[in-house]
Amino acid sequence: MTATAVIEEIKHLSPAEQSRVIQFAFELARERQLPGKELSALAKQMVDADNPAEVMKLRDEIHRGFYGE
Q: For residue 13, what is the DSSP state?
């Protein structure tokens, strides 16, 4: 099943069931911390980036990868 198919299925759930899916997604995101090597690689990419949008994107990835959020 693809992500698109899953999203379409979620759209047809009741609001209570959709809330549970959202809660699960947040729980999953919290559990997904990145190892040090990956965080270091993202930090290097961020330092080397000259596009402000790319810097912001990488900063957010580092934050999520470090804190698991």
A: S
Q: In whole angstroms, what is the distance from residue 68 CA to residue 35 CA?
A: 11
pLDDT tens-digit map of 6-38? 999 999 999 999 999 999 988 887 777 888 899
The pair phi, psi for residue 2, each rounded to 5°, is -90, 165
What percent of the chain is predicted at pLDDT more than 90?
A: 70
In this structure, the chain runs to a length of 69
Domain boundaries, the chain: 3-67
Between CA 11 and CA 29 the distance in angstroms is 20
How far, in Å, are 8, 26, 39 from residue 61 at the CA level? 26, 15, 9
